Amino acid sequence: MSTNIKPILFMAIGVLLLCFGCATTPPRTVTTPKQTPEPVTTPEQTPEPQPAAPSPEKTEPAKAPTEPVAPPKPIPEPRSTVPSPAQTDKPTPRAVASLGLTEQARLLIESKKPDDAISTLEKAMNLDPNNGRNYYFLAEAWMIKGNKTQAVQFNRMADLYLSNDAGWKLKVQQQKGRIDKMIITR
Amino acid sequence: MRIIKKNIHLIIPMLKGVGIILLLIILGTAAYGWSLSKDIEKRFSGRRWSIPSKVYSDSTILYPGQEINPELFFDKLKGLGYREVPYKPAQKGELRRKGDILDLFLNDLNLPIQKREGFPVEITIREGAIIEITNSQSGESIPLLELEPQELSLFFGPEREQRRLISIDDVPVQVQRAFLAAEDVRFYEHHGLDFRGILRAIYADLRQKGIYQGGSTITQQLAKNYFLTPEKTLSRKLKEMLLAVVMETKYEKKEILEIYLNEIYFGQNGSVAINGLGEASYSYFGKQVNELSLGEGAVIAGLVKAPNIYSPYNNLERSKTRRDQVLKNMVKQGWISQAEYESALSSPIKPTGSQTYGRKAPYFIDYLSSQLEEFYSKDALSTLGLSVFTTLDTQVQKAAETALSRGLARIEKANPSLKKKDPQKQLQGAIIVLQPKTGYILAMVGGRDYNVTQFNRITQAKRQPGSAFKPFVYLAALDRFTPATRLSNIPVTYKVGGKEWRPENYSPIPEEQMSLRTALARSVNIATVDLAMKLGLDNVVRTASAFHFSTPLEPYPSLALGALEVIPLELARAYCAFAADGLLPVPLSLKEVSDENGNTLNSKHMEVEQAVPPAKAFIMDSLLNSVVVEGTASSLKTLGVSQPVAGKTGTTSDSRDAWFVGYTPDILAMVWVGFDDGTSMQGTGASAALPIWADLMKNIPQYLSGGWFRRPEGVVDRVICSESGQLAIPGRCPDTLREVFLEQLAPTEYCSIHQVQNPVKDINQEVKDLVNKH
After folding, report:
1. What pLDDT is attached to residue B211?
2. Nearest to B730 among A10, A27, A79 (CB)
3. A125 belongs to a structural domain
4. What is the pLDDT of residue B483?
5. Region B18-24: what's the mean pLDDT?
6. What is the extent of the structural domain holding A132?
7. Would A161 be classed as within a structural domain?
8. Nearest CA in chain A to B514
């Protein structure tokens, strides 16, 4: 009887230990220093684990075990397959410049000059492609021109770029509502 | 008397006969003259009061904090006509450099949307960046400054030859007179034919027993030009004379002279014909016609007699002798004073040099012409004085042209067997640069030297992309597979239409299997074909069709390796979709056309279409980043570009083509290198095209923000084991990777390789350790 329980017991402990391993040390996202992508090692290089943050290594266990046992392998930091350049809260000079043009475009839209607004927004977009407001206003301009297809495309992009900003996200949603109501003229 | 009376019944009919014949001749001549008159109207009239349309580059935006290439920036200012002065600029168009400070008195900005009067600004530039821009008068800080567009070209007449049309009012009087002195002193006095000249020439001809060449008035020369093929027969000469008389009745002297000056052949610049004074003044002296000095005008006027003999590029001595002859004649006619004569005689002839002659962005202008045809006929363009605003960025254009010529020279130096003597057969290259989100064409270089061949390898060539096509296969794969999917690198022989085909890798790759990511990064042929066959070639074709290639896509296995033809512009366009969250743009060269008063007549806008869902585009960007980080384009870092870049190298079989397409959210550039006739260029995308790309990019820092693409919804990341591609078991998988997946395809199973194999054994060890610690 006891011999049957043993493997089950061991398996149970094994599973527990596995879960324990999972629950601790979540994999760390690697943050990169400004401007330079994270140095990534090629797949052919050492399969040995890369040392993580220096501190765990330095604090070796005070008591040296009598039997030479390998120190616990530090959890290797996973390389990221997506570059993550530094994100600062402060807007970059180009973003500021681009927003200047966005503002010009907004005024042109208010004056019902959609072609001029679009030209200005294209300039703004060439300057800073990550500026989601440009997409929002492009959608506005194309709505004035009666082009639902382009308005839809740009509204969708505005949604993609402005999803983090609660205020703008709402505006984009509202805009979508207005676009949906557009009668398709082209 | 008696003889006449006797034969009067014979003489009168004879006289009648002669009279009739004479009448017929006169009528015939008049009829011919009338029909000629109609024809010359068509041939010459269109250009009489033509104000040629002008083509402009895009305006340039400057802002504080912007990185710039100071050399290209100053080049641009010079190109815009700003003159360097040693004092603080007091009028529009002046600039002064003093240490870090650039004082610039702006020219007027005259765009259809925006008109701004020029004013003085102070720009501080330090360490390759604009630190600040200030209004010199008010001291106000300027957050955004728009520099006026640069004139690229004038629009030509239907022949599309090297011709810049001028108005007679632009030609200085002395230069006009130089032409008269050289060719037809009595131009303003005769009525098409100069009888004194003809008599003199006949006398000269009788002595030489040939049909006379001289004695041609300016009007006659123009008449000669009307007949497109030269003939030296008497009948032709008579026709020309008649035509000259007809023209004199039709047009005023001034008009005839204007047509003449725009028509006449002025020699060659390399392989290109110089037609018209407007072109000649640029070709020989790098100036606009109204800037020509007396001496320069005399040189050009003297050319007409025998352009290649009297060209200052061919023989400076002969050119001077001829010039002096013209000047002497002018003094004789009393058109210039003795002082002016002596001054002109003593000034040296300084031609601008045939190498520096070059139109700005000629391939781009050609492409633009074809886009303009949608709105305007060539006639309209050469006469209506329109302003055509384009997307071209002259700094990027210059950087691209330089990078290409430097790069091709470098390749030839490293491999002298590639250097060909015949300029028509030389190693060629092409570059296109676009802003991927708007589709704006920032630069286009269609070949190594427009003067040698005007064939535009970006818009007209059909080449095989080779591995530069692979991303479309991998894109199709994202429907079912992920970057972590294992692909097989074991060689397989396929049966294609009865024949056997066994794809091989470009260089030996030992691994039997690898991740999808690695297969694309290292451009592994065997794995790619394996993938394509798994997907189904029809699926690959369907995916690629979303990018609107105008060339056919056939579902053959070799499609996976890029064995198809594409037009390079279309390939670059397709990659734009990856760089623009999946939105495929329409490549734009023309922005708008306005009339001479600045009113907008037409405008073209950015046009986009969703070719790929944003989530897939994001994953593709990441896959193509691996190409640069650890794949075939990994030398990019050592070439000096360290910002995050996505890209793909391409090399076709026998190295007939070398490609590199690289992009960031701000910019996309594609470089191609190869021979027009398909000879092997003995290199690869990485060895030949990539360095040119890097060279270009390093010179346009304002376009490299260092940013990356925005992660859309539907993309998740998971830490996976790089060996198995499954979820990593922390502490067990030795090499892990944070990989991106489409949410619905993210892995759910843990690594089967590093999973705990024998729980019993390991637990024993754990217990032992615990025991030994105490």
Report:
1. 44
2. A27
3. yes
4. 96
5. 90
6. 114-186
7. yes
8. A43
Helices (H), A61-147: 93-110, 114-127, 132-144
How many Cβ atoms from other residues are within 10 Å of residue B88's Cβ?
13
- Record the tokens describing residue B186, joined without a space: 């009595």
Considering all CA atoms of chain A, what is the largest pairwise distance in Å, rounded to the nearest integer?
A: 89
Distance CA B674, CA A68 (A): 62
Residue B440 phi, psi dihedral angles, 5° rounding: -60, 130
Instruction: Work out the number of other CB atoms within 10 angstroms of the CB of residue B105.
Output: 21
Tell me which of A10 and B649 has the higher pLDDT: B649
What distance in Å separates the CA atoms of residue B94 and residue B106, rounded to the nearest whole number? 8
3-state helix, strand, coil in chain B (%, to 5): 45, 20, 40
Q: Which of A54-63, B402-411, B656-665, B690-699 has the weakest average pLDDT?
A: A54-63
For residue A65, is it within any domain?
Answer: no
Flag if B144 and A115 touch (Cβ within 8 Å).
no
Chain A / chain B CB contacts < 8 angstroms: 179
Q: What is the pLDDT of residues A14-36, one digit of tens each?
A: 455 554 444 444 444 333 333 33
Please give the tally of structural domains in chain A. 1
Query: Are B295 and B181 within 8 A, CB to CB?
Result: no
> What's residue B227's pLDDT?
66
- Respond yes or no on whether ipTM tops 0.90: no
Q: Is residue A25 part of a domain?
A: no
Residue B467 bears catalytic tag? yes
Distance CA B83, CA B524 (A): 55
For residues B39 and B326, the model is more confident at: B326
> Residue A184 sits in a domain of what CATH number?
1.25.40.10
Q: Which two tokens stand for residue A9?
A: 């017991």
The whole-model pTM stands at: 0.73
Å between A171 CA and nearest CA of chain B: 19
Distance CA A109, CA A103 (A): 10
Q: Is B340 a catalytic residue?
A: no
Residue B756 has a pLDDT of 72
